[in-house]
């Protein structure tokens, strides 16, 4: 593993205590961030294990990964706010669908129609979301912004509404959190598989 | 040069300078996985953005793959010993 968490060897023979303290503080901050990540994700995982039917687990676990990542990062980052907003919107849509299903179950409706209705609603939502994203007013592009930035905007949550400078900053933070989340999930897979 | 002209126009309207942007781009470059293999030569910013997009896409794919494996393992594993192992590793 790379030495990201360990303090690098000091070049001078008498390392200043301030530098050591800063390194220790940085390591402690990182490990506390990792602990927050693990806390949110494990809490979600245990709920999924109890509640979620097996066929929906993969999708739910993936969404829980992004939600817990965003929750651990907190609301001070634009990408985490965007992810939490998406999760909230998804829960609201699910509530509407459940209500609709309950109402149609009260009045006898064909099962295929109910299931197809769910898929059609999901497709309609994604196309509506895509249409909304296309018609959204984009922030003015800066003069020096390379064309690659558009692909980056699509990848980073909430990237559509950012200026180029904030996009770069948010991307770095999103990348670090994504990497930590992947490391956490890989560690869990290792833990679960060899016992 | 046109870049100089546009820079002076920008510095009047916004406080974001080219230096800040190149600083952010170099921070992104340091996050990339190949940054440790290469010596820290500055890659062109378009290359950095492209590599960042590829890296984010590969991380998304890893999250999907790990979610699938986790869902399989949740179904089959023994939860109590797994929980004990997790708590032990978190408290270390």
Automatic annotation (TrEMBL), chain A:
Keywords: Transcription, Transcription regulation. GO terms for biological process: regulation of DNA-templated transcription. Coiled coil: none annotated. Signal peptide: none annotated. Residues 40-88 form the IBH1-like N-terminal domain. InterPro entries: IBH1-like, IBH1_N. This is IBH1-like N-terminal domain-containing protein. It comes from Zizania palustris (Northern wild rice).
UniProtKB/TrEMBL annotation, chain B:
GO terms for molecular function: protein dimerization activity. GO terms for biological process: regulation of DNA-templated transcription; regulation of growth. Pfam families: bHLH_ILI. Keywords: Growth regulation, Transcription, Transcription regulation. It comes from Zizania palustris. Residues 1-20 are annotated as: Disordered. This is BHLH domain-containing protein. It comes from the Eukaryota. PANTHER family: TRANSCRIPTION FACTOR ILI6, TRANSCRIPTION FACTOR PRE. Belongs to the bHLH protein family. The keyword Transcription regulation applies. Residues 5-59 form the BHLH domain.
């Amino acid at each position: 593993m790379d030495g990201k968490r360990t303090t690098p060897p000091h070049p001078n023979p008498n390392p200043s205590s301030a530098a050591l303290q800063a390194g220790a503080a940085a390591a402690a901050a990182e490990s506390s961030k990792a602990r927050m990540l693990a806390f949110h994700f494990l809490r979600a995982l245990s709920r999924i294990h109890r509640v979620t039917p097996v066929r929906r687990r993969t999708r739910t676990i993936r969404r829980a990964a992004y939600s817990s990542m965003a929750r651990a990062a907190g609301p001070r980052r634009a990408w985490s706010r965007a992810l939490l907003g998406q999760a909230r919107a998804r829960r609201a849509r699910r509530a509407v669908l459940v209500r609709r299903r309950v109402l149609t179950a009260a009045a006898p409706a064909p099962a295929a129609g109910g299931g197809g209705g769910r898929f059609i609603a999901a497709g309609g939502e994604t196309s509506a979301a895509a249409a909304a994203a296309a018609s959204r007013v984009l922030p003015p592009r800066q003069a020096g912004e390379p064309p690659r930035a558009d692909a980056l905007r699509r990848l980073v949550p909430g990237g559509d509404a950012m200026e180029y400078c904030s996009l770069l900053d948010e991307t770095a933070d999103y990348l670090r959190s994504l990497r930590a989340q992947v490391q956490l999930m890989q560690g869990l897979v290792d833990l679960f598989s060899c016992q | 040069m046109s870049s100089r002209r546009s820079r002076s126009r920008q510095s009047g309207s916004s406080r974001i300078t080219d230096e800040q942007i190149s600083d952010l781009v170099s921070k992104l470059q340091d996050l990339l996985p190949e940054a440790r293999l290469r010596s820290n030569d500055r890659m062109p910013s378009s290359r950095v953005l492209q590599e960042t997009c590829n890296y984010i896409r590969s991380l998304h794919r890893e999250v999907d793959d790990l979610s699938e494996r986790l869902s399989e393992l949740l179904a089959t594993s023994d939860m109590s010993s797994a929980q004990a192992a997790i708590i032990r590793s978190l408290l270390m």
